[in-house]
Amino acid sequence: MRAPRPQGVVTRGTTSPNRLRAMDRWIAHWLGPLLREADDPLVVDLGYGASPVTVLELRSRLAAIRPDLRVVGLEIDPERVASAQSAARPPLLEFRRGGFELAGLRPTVARAANVLRQYDEAAVAGAWQTIVGALAPGGALVEGTCDELGRLAAWVSVDAVGPRSLTLAARLNQLDRPATLAERLPKALIHHNVPGEGVHALLGALDSGWAAAAPYAAFGPRQRWQRAVASILESGWPVLDRPARWRLGEVTVAWSAVAPGGPVTARS
């Protein structure tokens, strides 16, 4: 049976070691139970770029959840697929040609990092729908962006119902202020960082909390970030995680709070 024709366009392909570490550990924590219970614990890394390094890292980090977990890296560019074959370790780690249709695979989890950022915003909903439609029942997509070294990142989790959450993540020892994360918002949100939109209000609330927590800087950036996140939770933002995740430089909020055009119900 022939694999379906790849859907999408070739990305720039830039990548580097540990660029997606924050996203990997989020997947392990939030989607770990899903992978543990899956009959076929398959994960697809879509659009891994010119180097397969982040696919290898994803497989290594998720192996702690299930040693039999399989990861398939997908790329539209056949030359990238060919050059990655030396790193393949079938059946646990493979590289194939494919796009949003996921090459006919039915993974439990799909990751698309720094892929849709290169598309028009109008293409995002369709891409999400295509990817999620190719997942195994109950599966999830993690889609987002980060800077070249993984210091700033943001991603959305999406399932058959639609987008569920937004996560912001930063290397706290290099963070000047939370508003800097606006540079790395996913394509679905980056053009909505304007007054009157939820994501703008969220970044503003974090910035205010960060400024108010300046005295905590004496105890390190983790303490300051934790206090900033605690302040938005106290003011009504639907924060889904707790201090153990905040210490890692993360915060995850319900998508309903930042959905484009949605009501801004929380107060910064």
From TrEMBL:
<dbReference type="InterPro" id="IPR029063">
    <property type="entry name" value="SAM-dependent_MTases_sf"/>
</dbReference>
<protein>
    <recommendedName>
        <fullName>Methylase</fullName>
    </recommendedName>
</protein>
